[in-house]
């Protein structure tokens, strides 16, 4: 771990603040970087109780693996890793994952889970808007179900662009503003379509009275995205973007999808047709490849 830390963690930056750069030791002896610690809470307990064989049997994201930067690279950054299921999948695939989360309880649980499976994975407590890593370190990065929870989500994009190597692959999955079904706040479908002035008091009421509706998280969803809008931000930050539709081939879809592959082929070829499908999708999924400066 010492050599790894020296190669990947950057020196303290006075612009960021020492609380985001401090390297310390947890009882197990593993070195991790602490930012804003959170104590064990109902959210962590819910996640730990939800461990299942299905989660432990995940494979690396197949869309990421369609791109050369992921196929040839080794170092993988799992942003908002939670229980570390995706980090575990990448470790089993022979890559070197680093999982980060702002929740200390989740990071400890992820580390214990990986160790129980005999896997050596680096788990780090860190703020995704202030990554404690050197520039040009990672070949692959992914963020699933995070952007919607971070008001300064654009800063995450800038930080990922900084720590990714040229031709590195960044995968994002987040909320879809065009879809009326709301998976982030239970029982409140069509919520993403409401004006912000109405959303704010509703969210305050939910957080105060119905914590279970947001799965007891302290960071509920506050952002909603479109494919075009998110792709535009990624492109302005120095990424070339792909939608999953751009990467579809008959040999990389499920048996069920093969039955309607002619429709998928139309969506791949004619981008305008995708606007008919976007409202049916629960999430926005984009792949971004870092371009040379």
Tell me what you see in this structure.
By secondary structure, the protein is α/β, with parallel strands linked by helices. The chain has a single domain, classed as 3-Layer(aba) Sandwich (Rossmann fold), CATH 3.40.50. It is 33% helix and 18% strand. The protein contains 12 helices and 9 strands. The strands form 2 sheets. Strands 5-4-3-6-7-9-8 form a 7-stranded mixed beta sheet, with helices on both faces. Strand 1 and strand 2 form a beta hairpin. The longest helix has 14 residues. The radius of gyration is 19 Å and the shape is globular. 34% of the residues are buried. About 10% of the residues have low confidence.
Keywords, please?
12 helices, seven-stranded mixed beta sheet, two-stranded antiparallel sheet, 293 residues, single chain
Number of structural domains: 1
**Spatial strand sequence of the major β-sheet:** 5-4-3-6-7-9-8
Q: Class in CATH? A: Alpha Beta
What is the ordering of alpha helices and beta strands?
Answer: HEEHHHEHEHEEHEHHEHHHE
Reported by name, the CATH topology is Rossmann fold
Discrete helix count: 12
- The counted number of beta strands is 9
Beta fraction: 15-25%
Mean pLDDT: 87
Largest sheet, strands/sense/barrel? 7 strands, mixed
Q: Based on helices, strands and strand pairing, what is the structural class?
A: alpha/beta
Give Rg in angstroms: 19 Å
* CATH homology superfamily: Vaccinia Virus protein VP39
Overall shape: it is globular
Helix content: 25-40%
N-end to C-end Cα span: 31 Å
